Amino acid sequence: MSLRVLSIELKRSVAPWAGAMSLATALTFLLSGSGQGTLTGWTAQWTSLALQTRFLLNFLWPLAMGLGALQGLRDHRSKVSELLTSTPRPASHRAASLSSAMAITLASAFAVLVLVGGVQVVARTEYTHLGWLPISLVGALALAAGAVLGMGVGRTLPFVLTPPALAVSALACMQLVYISLTKVDASTGFTMQEPNRLSLLSPAQEARDVLLTLSTSVHVGQMIWLLGMTATGFALLVTKRLRNRLIALTPILVGAAIALCVFPSDPHRMYVVDKAAAHLVCDGPICVTRTHQARLDALAGPGKDALRRMRGALGDYAPVSVREDTDAWPDGSTPRWSRRIALFDFASDDTLLTAEGEELSKALVGDSLVPNCSPRAWASVNVSDISAQSIAVGWLFNDPEPSSSDIAYLSKDQLGKVRRVWSEFKDLPSAEQRTRVRAMYLGAVACKGDPLAVLDGGPA
Length: 460
What we know:
Elements: H1 3-12, H2 15-31, H3 46-55, H4 57-72, H5 74-78, H6 81-85, H7 91-124, H8 133-156, H9 162-179, E1 182-184, E2 191-193, E3 212-214, H10 216-238, H11 242-247, H12 250-262, E4 271-273, H13 275-278, E5 280-283, E6 286-289, H14 296-314, E7 321-324, E8 341-344, H15 351-354, H16 357-369, H17 383-396, H18 412-426, H19 430-445, H20 451-455
Parallel strand pairs: 6-7, 7-8
Antiparallel strand pairs: 1-2, 3-4, 5-6
Helix pairs in contact: 1-7, 2-4, 2-7, 3-7, 3-8, 4-8, 4-9, 7-8, 8-10, 10-12, 14-16, 16-17, 17-18
């Protein structure tokens, strides 16, 4: 492949416009605020950056296929197809220059997108690693493969409507794959999203949790599938006869078959916990993951204060350490809590990211004494938990009123009930108060009983 010819293709083909359009579309989407300010935002962590940019392939990949098909129509539009076949230069050389130009510009646009996010990630996190690199490399390969396949389809079906039809078809396929993620748990009726092997054929993947990343077998399977796609696109570019074009479909079909065999069958082995990111960094009994080690200094003091206060209220039943939860719980599962270790999750309580001093201590005490027992990813508010948290926290911190960052979620009637229980609880002897709080705590960490009813004198 001549560099001079490649340079001409980069200047005069659709390639530079394809790269510019992809980059502008992606930056417009990301800079509009989508996904920013969250733990899995595109500028929060390196893995989140890689997965959020991969999620953009939901529309960038169909766009690359459509633009590739437009490029593939060039010879037919110029009416020089027959003239080119009469030249001594092999068709594969022309195809290599043309497809390389598209691949280079689209991969470069994706690299610039990652670079823009990476500059912001460097300023926001102390945890740096290279585990995100395979995710982004597969993303860049997906754009290049989609464009080459589009070029091959455009050359095979040289019609005006081929580019838009191909882009719309690819977009529809992406949406169907996304819909296939949704399933209903037969035992709980809980609607959740769970990846499957078919969905991994889609180059678009999403950030599910700040500690989760794609497994190595997923990277390998996707690369095989995308290389097969590239080979088919290139073969369609250089073949003329129907028989050869049918044979050209072999790489993409074989690639898909091999990829489906390589992908894990267990959804929990598709997205796996990044052990390096989940490694605990501790200050005494207070531990956070390496991903959030920048928050350790702010958490250490309030965390130790929370342990001291719970020790005073619960005695030997109190937790002895406060630790960030590193387990990857599947959606819809019921959490399991430890009595000796108070687990917390930044994703489930925004207060832990923003509060300081005593407010942070209160948040840790509330989450520790009455942990959330709702199924994972269940977007519901348990008013009994919030009510019990507000009373227990207010009592431990000697506040004049029930105290909780979530008390605003309570209705007027529920707030009235909390104040009645609080008033009666405050009039109890100190020993009875401790007994009820201890009973509430033991029931709450076992996800049994009604915490507010226990504080009100009900059965544990």
